[in-house]
Task: structure prediction
Amino acid sequence: MSEGRQEVIYLEVDGLRRRYVLYRPHAVVTSGQLAPLVIMLDGRGGTPWTAMKITRWNDTADRHGFVVVYPEATRVDPKGPLHFLTNPQMWNAGAGGSDTERPEVDDLTFLRSMVDHVVLHARIDRTRIYLTGFSNGAAMTYRFALAFPETLAAIAPVAGHLRQHDQVLAAPVPMLALFGRLDPLSPYEGGPVDLPWGVREVRPPAPASVHAWAALNGHDPAEGRITTEPGLSRLAYGEPGARDEVVFITIDDLGHVWPGGHRLLPEPLVGPTSDRLDANAAIWTFFQRHQR
Result:
């Protein structure tokens, strides 16, 4: 059980009162030294508190001495109660998904403002700011990294897609991406899917976003190195620790669930959980070898 300091912090961005949850391990609070920062974006219908529960990032932060922040997205109808199907909170991750059927909200400006706010509030090492997200939060991770690559040391999208394929990455951003082969909401091979909120979408193949990010980082997408082990495969570009490093891990027995995490929604909806890979351990190991 995490024993650090948790705060709900509000800030106003573009006339909207937004909030995020900041978690600082006890050792970080008492040391007074600059600490790394992990930003976690939950998926459609999620909140900072569901993000904490599915990922257990606070416990990982306690073990390794970094700060975690959980920004909160906005509801489709800001005046209505939160509901996963009819009024979810979700990020404005760009065109290409049903989460665009919502009022226009400038989440890029909110997240950029939040980063500056956290850095001042919590003594953060600006050279070690990392961004990860799940599903719709993963799509927002890609979008933010394209817009503000100079703020990030590395990213780790999980079970989500890059939607902006016509942009240029101003500076390389290392990436570790994770995806489950049994994902029913974003089929690994791509294709049409009937979503539980009554929309049919055509999803791209999971590797397509990784190939695109590899190209944005200067690689030939066809020249990745593939390694396998029981139940897992890895596609890698660049050398470990290099600014152009891109790694994609496929978990064969995983659905639309945080790898090694807690499943909140029923298995018939999101597919199976899997402990074959601990996402936090894999992501933090990747993050540790990158510093801006």
Notes: The mean pLDDT is 93. The longest strand covers residues 124-134.
